[in-house]
């Protein structure tokens, strides 16, 4: 039985990895490890289909080390022992251990000394946060890298490569992939390349040739093979982003009915990931300090929707959407951090005051670090007049509070009172 397209198209060298260029691109950390053949064990965490296995496969291919794949949940200690014996006999083995967050203590205790010696280069893969779900003993012996959903352009590049490859891919098939079908394939899979490639293969192999001898892969064909519907009936390649944009702008404009309409189009497409990601952005970007409690409840609604999935997940999300629409709005926190970032990027900052510098190590006081620092909790109301910004920008104001809602009005009063007391 032939392996799925996503499996066949796994990269054999680091240069073939799609996306994650902050890790595998020229001059980046994993690329440097490969070039120097100085590999260290690592944990890759992120959503499914984002390239964790591909990175491990590419590392092994580029370094010519043996590559083995095990699952921490289903494979046994004996399976690990077989890999360890192979490593002793033939040299270093790169072991991809999927679902590493489910590694039990027996298997962990067996692996630890092998990681210490470098006999096995462990690449753990997980969709769970390793800082919460992976044992500290494993974490301390690995580097942790986060992988992100692939962009639409990443997906398109991988699809084009698969269509052109006549050995591992679909190059032997006379495929005519329509532009709107390609756009939908790139966006509807939410950065999951595995889903995109396997959906493409099903579409190609299940579609008969037309009168011109071509396998015409249209938008309806891709929709059927992915079991997702396009967000817009106009088949516009930008429809995905247009609906997401209209959704945010409707909430920002306090139109609950419009927001629910656009949310429904996203839900009907099956794109829960894009909906909840955008909803979180909206909560903190557009409502923010005007109603922090609504932001917290949005996070709770999103977590509930993740647990429930669709269709039930629509219910907590509807609660959050309506509340955000009808809530007072403020973007003051976003504009404040953007203003601060703009200064930093432009190099518009000075030296940290000496008394604010780290003073916990021996000899710090000789450098003047921490000297004359005033500890606010030693003073009345736990506050003392003291300069915190560098001299160069000591009077700068990034946060400009608004009066939109009781919470930010109260924060504004406190902020202005503190600035006045500090002499600004």
From TrEMBL:
SMART domains: AAA (SM00382)
Domain of life: Bacteria
Keywords: ATP-binding, Nucleotide-binding
GO molecular function, one term: enzyme activator activity
Gene Ontology biological process terms from the UniProt entry: DNA synthesis involved in DNA repair; DNA-templated DNA replication
Keyword Cell membrane attached: no
Similarity-based family: Belongs to the AAA ATPase family. RarA/MGS1/WRNIP1 subfamily.
Entries under PANTHER family matching the protein: ATPASE WRNIP1, WERNER HELICASE-INTERACTING PROTEIN 1 FAMILY MEMBER
Protein name, entry field: Replication-associated recombination protein A
């Amino acid at each position: 039985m032939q392996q799925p397209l996503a499996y066949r198209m796994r990269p054999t060298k680091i240069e073939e990895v799609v996306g994650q260029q902050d890790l595998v691109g020229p001059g980046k950390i994993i690329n440097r490890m490969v070039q120097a053949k100085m590999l260290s064990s690592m944990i890759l965490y992120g959503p499914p289909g984002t390239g964790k296995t591909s990175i491990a496969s590419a590392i092994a291919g580029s370094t010519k080390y043996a590559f083995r794949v095990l699952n921490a949940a289903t494979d046994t200690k004996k399976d690990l022992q077989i890999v360890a014996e192979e490593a002793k006999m033939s040299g270093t083995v790169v072991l991809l251990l999927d679902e590493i967050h489910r590694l039990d203590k027996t298997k962990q205790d067996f692996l630890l000394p092998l990681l210490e010696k470098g006999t096995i280069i462990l690449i753990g893969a997980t969709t769970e946060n390793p800082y919460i779900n992976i044992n500290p003993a494993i974490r301390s012996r690995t580097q942790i890298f986060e992988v992100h959903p692939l962009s639409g352009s990443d997906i398109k590049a991988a699809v084009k490569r698969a269509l052109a490859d006549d050995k591992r891919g679909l190059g032997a098939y006379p495929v005519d992939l329509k532009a709107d079908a390609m756009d939908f394939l790139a966006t509807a899979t939410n950065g999951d390349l595995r889903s995109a490639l396997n959906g493409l293969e099903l579409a190609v192999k299940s579609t008969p040739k037309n009168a011109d001898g071509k396998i015409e892969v249209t938008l309806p064909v891709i929709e059927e093979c992915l079991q997702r519907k396009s967000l817009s009936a106009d088949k516009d390649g930008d429809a995905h982003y247009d609906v997401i944009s209209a959704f945010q702008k409707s909430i920002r404009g306090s139109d609950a009915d419009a927001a629910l309409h656009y949310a429904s189009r996203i839900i009907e497409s099956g794109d829960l990931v894009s909906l909840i990601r955008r909803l979180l952005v909206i909560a903190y970007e557009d409502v923010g300090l005007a109603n922090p409690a609504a932001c917290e409840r949005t996070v709770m609604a999103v977590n509930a929707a993740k647990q429930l999935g669709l269709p039930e997940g629509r219910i907590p999300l509807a609660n959050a959407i309506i509340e955000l629409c009808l809530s007072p709005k403020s973007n003051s926190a976003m504009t404040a951090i953007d203003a601060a970032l703009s200064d930093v990027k432009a190099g518009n900052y000075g030296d940290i005051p000496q008394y604010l510098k780290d003073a916990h190590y021996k000899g710090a006081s000789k450098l003047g670090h921490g000297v004359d620092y005033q500890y606010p909790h030693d003073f009345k109301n736990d506050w003392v007049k003291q300069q915190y910004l560098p001299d160069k920008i000591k009077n700068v104001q990034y946060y400009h509070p608004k009066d939109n809602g009781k919470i930010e009005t109260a924060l504004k009063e406190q902020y202005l009172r503190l600035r006045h007391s500090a002499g600004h």
